[in-house]
Backbone:
């Protein structure tokens, strides 16, 4: 019995034969899921079974097929409760995305794409998830990207009910309403059971009231009726609101002994029960035997590459030059360059749209000029950072350049896990952190982001640039907008000097340290704007007859080993950074040098070694021993 | 005019003269706030003015005074919108917590306790805040601690309206209702203006509907009427629900030119305007002149020490011994020890209560035995990690031992910023991370917490212990329950061997590496359970005639430099860790050694150098090169 072609709702209602075909497929898909879990001896069959009609219908109606799943202009599907992966794989096998035998055999096995939670390597999966609460935010990001690309599509987000308590979901709901994303449709698998028991015993939450309070259309639906789900999905958005389907379901539905039992949230059934359920679903215990046999062989279905989205088509314009003392803050230079590139590309045919996300910080992060020049591509999100981090990451996977400018503590400390998931998803998020280090002005320690180098270093894909001056900031801004992958640029709050070195024909090269001063008696490696402090320290040292080299480091994650090798010859190496002294540039240099057997002579590491105080940035740095005078003194003491 | 004594609501309504006295005080407090901001040339006067009647009333009615503010059994006050600090300081100066002249002179100045956002060094401030959205969660924690201590008090949480969009607040609301915290009272400064404009332009959010949907009693109140606020506070909780006062206010109220202007959210007024406002508030421009004069002198009011809460009074019992191959998982040993200590102290006179927080993970994090033995001290919180991280931290500041057991990725990656605020607040949170490293079973990379050492290293106060076996896990569990300060213990999922070394009279000592094997040809430092892999690698190497020492490291944040100095003599040092190889124990050892001029010969660092796959833990480790065989091979290659 062939599955009916129901993509994009060709009919008002499903026919009886459509429903029969879907039901037959769902039986096979459930057995695929159960077989995967039993073959792997690990997985989550309960939710896989309760969500099955939702999965089958969504992948049926969505404008998302094995043929178009790598295109940009199409529908998107996010499975937020990623632990139901076996169920999702069962369903998409029915719709032809993956071979069913491969899925049944190679779940949660080394070398297989059918990993623990859904992942983008599998065609049909638009987002790797697994940490609850992020899916709806991603759906918002996809929908914003669709709109920016002039595509009037749908985004489906399937979620569990237990995770409805995560605060990030509420943030995403409000973003969707604020931006009028009527093509966004959420489906909740409402089975009232979660890992350790009944939902209402664990944490009551009035799901319907909350979605409605945030302005969504909430529709209660039988989550096991193909007809009901189809019709509700078809009608979604009709009232000009984003829509959530509250799908009443039974945990483990159609799984005999599994039905309604919390225990099967996360464990396989016994072999005996497997046999009974397999028979009930139209096959036999033999299905598992065959899967186990095939499991001994290597997976052959390798899925797809999920490398960073390819380089966007944008004109990055001509850099501005800044020269002079305290000529601009780096965030200001960023804001000007961003607006310049924005204007050059806004609504130009064939250009990749640039979306800029904001959390009520325009005057501080300097994105106002972009907002004024490109109003439709400026996305105001309110104070909802978790949701924004995920949404901007997802948007970057759907054909836009996606940039979020934010205070350091909110753009990475608060949303570290969201940025980690962006990394796992190989997103192309551009996060511009302002007010990093002690350079936050008077706000004090809760606002001092002194760990961004370390946090980025924990992830394997992110690039990080900490520019030295407004000239470099301008050039890095243009570079990052054009460069694929997750990239973070981090700048402080204060005005700094514009250095001649970075003007004119200077071109930014990722990973290169810049030698700003030559000296034979020692070398200072300085992170970002602290290179300007180091230059002043070097002048002070020079008056004492001590000549030091100064290397400006703007790419702390990739130490410039040739610069280090050169510096070592001076016999004295110092590092300075407006960052936790234990976890930043100095720590990275020490490790990479030790790995290569390079000894950093008389190594002195200066940086933030306690939470800073509140005061003007010069005073706060001075208290930390990071003024030019104190750095020079430290160098002399270390000789 | 003396302020009336209204602590704990001695009367039904305020009298006319009470109100007049409060109004007069509020004028002075507003001028204190404005003077602070103008003297510092930095701060947030708008919200300070709009919240003033709320601040004055809350500090008036609360059972919180300069005399009892260091006690445990009293009311607690949390100011969630910490940027209104100048207003708070103005108000508490009126209630005698701090000297008004000191506050007016020394705001946001190095060496002063009156820092950028409210901080616990200031008497009357129960929580240092500044990152929006955390205050209500802290209030929940204080209320839970009060109850555990048998104290029937109130907790007041004052919040802004802009930050109402933060998802964490919704999580806290649900925790309060789930645990029936009717003494918890929230007040929202509803002035409809935030940093970059009008609240409804930035991110609409139906504040009242959301609080009600989560089960709170929401009361609309005139936020500038002392009488109305007093009466509403007095009535709070009457209907058996936690109560929120929606206080309608005017941004910059009573500040003439400031009224209703978003711009004064975060900047001082001009000197001319200051003079006009000062006169309007009953003083003159002279107030600022005096403050600026005094600002040139050193602050004399030093506030209070906020060292870690003192050691709790609990009986930690007698450790259990485990011996044999794969005798227990470390999380199981933790669960047993926790239940043992729980039982010994539960409802015993004079003992410090032990609260255990859970996010729907009992069967996985093994806190079920504690829950069964100490049901009233087990706090089920649902899948709401941000709120729990803050709540458990706050509870630890209010006279309980507060422990949260959680998967690594949710207990630190997802809530890194909340744990950072716990650190800044010198809390005594005990966070037990399970399923860390690749040892999460088949869940795959989204669930592999490979960065916990690095994240803890970013903070200055946290201790971290990664036990080697069930015996050490048992002993560390008992130790951390009794030891002040924020402490994290991190364990994997798999069963491991019980080592004789850690049985019997072995006592855990923070910072000491354990030499488990002696060898002259090299030394392996291994983090936590990977010491057991290292021991097996050492046996393999021994069959090749190579004898290596094995040092088990359970305290990676404090490298045992004497062990390192000893190991260096063997001429070959290797590190192994189930952690990001760039940011964990090896990185710390490399930096600390380089600082001391110690060269780690032939350093090899083994660990996680890409996101792991999904499979059983042995297979996943093997893929990463961390099996005993592959470690031994790597060592031979590095000779």
Residues:
């Amino acid at each position: 019995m062939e599955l009916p072609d129901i993509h994009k709702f060709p009919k008002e209602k499903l026919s009886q034969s459509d429903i029969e075909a879907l039901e037959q497929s769902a039986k096979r898909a459930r057995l695929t899921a159960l077989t995967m879990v039993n073959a792997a001896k690990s997985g989550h069959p309960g939710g896989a079974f309760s969500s099955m009609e939702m999965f089958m219908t969504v992948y049926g109606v969505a404008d998302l097929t094995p043929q178009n799943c790598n295109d940009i202009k199409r529908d998107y599907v996010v499975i937020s409760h990623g632990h139901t992966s076996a169920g999702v794989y069962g369903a998409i096998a029915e719709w032809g995305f993956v071979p069913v035998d491969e899925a049944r055999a190679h779940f949660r096995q080394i070398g297989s794409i059918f990993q623990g939670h859904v992942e983008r390597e599998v065609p049909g999966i638009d987002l790797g998830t697994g940490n609850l609460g992020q899916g709806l935010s991603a759906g918002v990001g996809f929908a914003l990207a669709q709109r920016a690309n002039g595509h009037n599509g749908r985004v489906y987000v399937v979620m569990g009910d237990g995770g409805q308590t995560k605060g990030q979901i509420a943030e995403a709901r409000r973003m969707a309403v604020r931006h009028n994303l009527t093509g966004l449709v959420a489906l909740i698998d409402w089975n009232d059971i979660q890992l350790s028991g009944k939902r209402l015993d664990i944490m009551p939450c009035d799901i319907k009231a909350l979605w409605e309070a945030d302005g969504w259309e909430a529709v209660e639906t039988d989550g096991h009726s193909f007809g009901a789900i189809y019709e509700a999905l078809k009608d979604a958005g009709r009232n000009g609101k984003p829509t959530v389907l509250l799908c009443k379901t039974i945990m483990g539905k159609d799984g005999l002994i599994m039905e309604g039992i919390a225990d099967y949230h996360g464990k396989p059934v016994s072999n005996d029960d497997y046999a009974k359920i397999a028979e009930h679903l139209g096959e036999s215990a033999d299905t598992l035997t065959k899967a186990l046999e095939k499991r001994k062989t290597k997976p052959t279905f390798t899925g797809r590459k999920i490398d960073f989205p390819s380089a966007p088509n944008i004109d990055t314009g001509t850099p501005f030059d800044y020269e002079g003392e305290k000529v601009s803050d780096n965030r200001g230079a960023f804001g000007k360059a961003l607006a310049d590139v924005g204007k050059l590309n806004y609504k130009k045919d064939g250009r990749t749209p640039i979306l800029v996300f904001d959390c009520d910080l325009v005057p501080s992060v300097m994105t106002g000029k972009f907002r004024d020049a490109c109003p439709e591509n400026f996305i105001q999100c309110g104070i909802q950072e978790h949701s924004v981090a995920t949404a901007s990451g997802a948007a970057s996977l759907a054909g836009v350049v996606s940039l979020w400018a934010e205070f350091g503590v909110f753009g990475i400390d608060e949303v570290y896990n969201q940025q980690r998931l962006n990394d796992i998803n190989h997103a192309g998020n551009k996060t511009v952190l302002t007010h990093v280090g002690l350079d936050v002005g008077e706000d004090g320690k809760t606002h001092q982001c002194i760990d961004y180098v370390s946090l980025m270093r924990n992830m394997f894909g992110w690039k990080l640039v900490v520019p030295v001056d407004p000239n470099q900031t301008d050039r890095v801004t243009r570079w990052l907008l054009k460069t694929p992958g997750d990239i973070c640029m981090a700048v402080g709050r204060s005005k700094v000097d514009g250095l001649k070195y970075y003007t004119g024909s200077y071109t930014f090269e990722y990973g290169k340290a810049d030698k700003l001063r030559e000296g034979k008696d020692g070398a200072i490696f300085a992170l970002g704007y602290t290179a300007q402090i180091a230059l002043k320290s070097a002048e002070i040292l020079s008056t004492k007859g001590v000549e030091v080299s100064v290397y400006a480091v703007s790419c702390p994650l990739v130490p410039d080993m040739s610069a280090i090798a050169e510096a070592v010859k001076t016999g004295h190496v110092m590092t300075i950074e407006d960052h936790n002294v234990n976890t930043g540039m100095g720590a990275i240099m020490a490790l990479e040098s030790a790995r290569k057997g390079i000894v950093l002579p008389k190594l002195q590491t200066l940086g933030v070694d306690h939470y800073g105080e509140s005061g003007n940035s010069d005073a706060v740095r001075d208290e930390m021993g990071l003024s030019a005078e104190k750095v020079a003194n430290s160098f002399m003491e270390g000789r």
About this structure: The radius of gyration of chain A is 27 Å. The longest strand of chain A covers residues 573-580. Chain A touches chain B through 112 residues (CB under 8 Å).
